[in-house]
Amino acid sequence: MERGDELIQAARVGNEAAVRQLLAAGARADQASGADGWLPLHVASYYGHEGVVRLLLEAATATAAMTDYHGQTALHYAALGWTPATLAVVRLMLEVAPNTALAVDSCGFTPLRRAAGDRSIEVVRLLLSAAPAAAAMLDARQWGPIHVAASHSNAASVQLLLEAAPELAFAQDNECRTPLQMFSPRSASLFADLVARLPLSQEQWHSFPAPCPDLARALPAVLQRSAAEAVWLVGRLAEGQRARLRATALSLARVKRGMPPLPAELSGRILALCLLGA
C-alpha cells in the first residue's frame, strides 16, 4: 500500500499516531486518492476525527478549500457526517476556511444543503450562522436547503430554514412542489409562524389546507398588516372558529359604540384570544 493510501486509511479510522508517522515519512496531505479524488482531510472530516483534521491542516492548510472531483470541500464532507463529532469539525473548518460555507459542488449543493436532510440541527444552525445567504441558494432541481429538510420530514431544520428564508416556503422545484407541500401534513404547525412574518398573495393563502385551526394565533400580526389577508386567514379557519369570531366581532362592535377605535393589533389579539381560548 502506498503512503497516500495509508494516510487515507489512517484518516478514515482516526488514527492520529499513524497520521503523524506517515506525514513525517513524506506522505502528502494534499494528494488526492481514488476515483472521487478524496483528500485525507475529506475523509477525516466526514468521519468527524477532529484530531486528525487538525494534523492534516497543519501539514497542508490549503487543503481546507480544495475540492474532490465532484467539487466538494472538507466542509461539505463534515456537513454530511453522521457522528456527533462532526459538529466540532464543521466549526473548525469554518474557522480555517469560512468562504467554503458558500462553496457549491458539481450538483449545486452548498454545505448547508448537504446538512439539511437528516443531520444534526446544531450543524445546520452553525452553517446558517456562518452563511445566511446559503439558505436561499437553489440547485439545478430548484431545491434549497428547506426543500431537503422538508423532504426528510426534519421539522427542526424546516423551522430554522423557514425563519432564514421565508420566501422559499412557496418556491416550486422542477416538479412544481413547494417545501410546505413536501412537509405536509406536518406543515400545519409552521403555517402560523410563516403568515405572521411574510405578506402573502391570495393565491398563496389558498394553497393552505382548510380548515387550518393553527392559523388563529397569527391573526393579530396579519390583521395589523392587511385587512384583506385577515379575511383570507379567516377563510382557512374551522367553521366553529369562524362562528366564534363573528360573535366576538359583534360584541366588540357593540362595546366600541361611541368610543375611539381600538388599534388593529389590540383588536386582533382580542379576536385571536377568543379563538385560542375556546
For this entry, give a set of tags.
mainly alpha; 278 residues; 3 domains; 17 helices; Serine Threonine Protein Phosphatase 5, Tetratricopeptide repeat
* Secondary-structure content class: mainly alpha
CATH architecture of the largest domain: Alpha Horseshoe
Terminal Cα span: 72 Å
The description of the largest β-sheet is: none
- Flag low-confidence runs: none
Distinct helical segment count: 17
CATH secondary-structure class of the largest domain: Mainly Alpha
> What sequence of helices (H) and strands (E) makes up the elements?
HHHHHHHHHHHHHHHHH
Number of strands: 0
Q: How big is the Rg?
A: 25 Å
Shape: elongated
The CATH topology of the largest domain, please? Serine Threonine Protein Phosphatase 5, Tetratricopeptide repeat
Helix fraction bin: 55-70%
Give the CATH H-level superfamily of the largest domain.
Answer: Ankyrin repeat-containing domain
Describe this structure in words.
This protein has about 280 residues and is mainly alpha-helical. It folds into three domains: about 1-105, Alpha Horseshoe (Serine Threonine Protein Phosphatase 5, Tetratricopeptide repeat), CATH 1.25.40; about 105-185, Serine Threonine Protein Phosphatase 5, Tetratricopeptide repeat, CATH 1.25.40; about 185-275, no CATH class. Helix content is about 55%, strand content about 0%. The protein has 17 helices and no strands. The protein has helices at about 5-15, 15-25, 40-45, 50-60, 75-80, 85-95, 110-115, 120-130, 145-150, 155-165, 180-185, 190-195, 200-205, 220-225, 225-235, 240-255, 265-275. The longest helix is centred in the last third of the chain and has 17 residues, at about 240-255. The radius of gyration is 25 Å and the shape is elongated. The model has no long low-confidence stretch (mean pLDDT about 90).
